[in-house]
Amino acid sequence: MVFKIRFLNIVLTIIIYFVGDTLQSILQNRKQTILLNIQEAENREQEAKRNLLFAKEAFRKAQQKVVTIQQNRVQTIQQDDYNIKQNTQQQIDKLYQVKQEIILLQRQKLVKEILKHIIDATFENVYQKLEKNYTLEFQKEVLDAYITFFCNYQI
Fold it and tell me: At residue 54, what are phi and psi to the nearest 5 degrees?
C-alpha cells in the first residue's frame, strides 16, 4: 500500500509537472479572460451610468419646459384674449365710422335732390309766370334792367 501511495505521488508529481504548466497557462488565460470581461462589464456599467445621468438631465429639462409652458399658457391665453378684444373693438369703430360716413353722404345726396327739385320747381314757376306776363311792356322792363346792369358793370 505504501508502494501504491508512493506510486500515486510520483505519477501525480509527473502529471503536475508536465500538466501543471499547461494547466497553469490555461488558468492564467482564463483569469485574463475573466478580468477582461470584468473590465468590459465595468466600462459598460460606467457608460450606462453616464447615459442614465444624461437621460435624467434631459427628463429634468423636459419637466422644466412643461412647467414653463403651463405657466405661460395662462398668460398667452390672456394676451390672445386681449388682442382679440382690441381687434374687435377696432373693427367695430371702423364700421361705426363707415356707417356715419354713409349716413352723411346719403343726407348730402338727399339735400341735393331736394334742392334740385326746389330749383326745378322754382324755375318752372318762373317760366310759367313769364309766359303769362309776357308782354311788350314786361319785355321792355327786362331789357332796361339788363342795360342798366351792363352799364353799371365796371371792368
Answer: -60, -45
Give tens-digit pLDDT for 29-79: 888 999 999 999 999 999 999 999 999 999 999 999 988 888 888 888 889
- How far apart CA 24 and CA 30 sit, in angstroms, is 10
Question: Model pTM?
Answer: 0.41
Which residues, 6+ apart, have CB-to-CB distance to 138 below 8 Å? 130
For 92-135, the pLDDT digits (tens) are: 999 999 999 999 999 999 999 998 898 888 888 877 777 776 67
C-alpha cell at 68: 414653463
Distance CA 69, CA 62 (A): 10
Q: What's the residue count for the chain?
A: 155
What is the C-alpha separation between 153 and 111, in angstroms, rounded? 34
Alpha-carbon span 143 to 130, nearest angstrom = 14
The C-alpha cell 456599467 sits at: 45
Q: Where are the domains of the chain?
A: 1-153
CA distance 13 to 121: 152
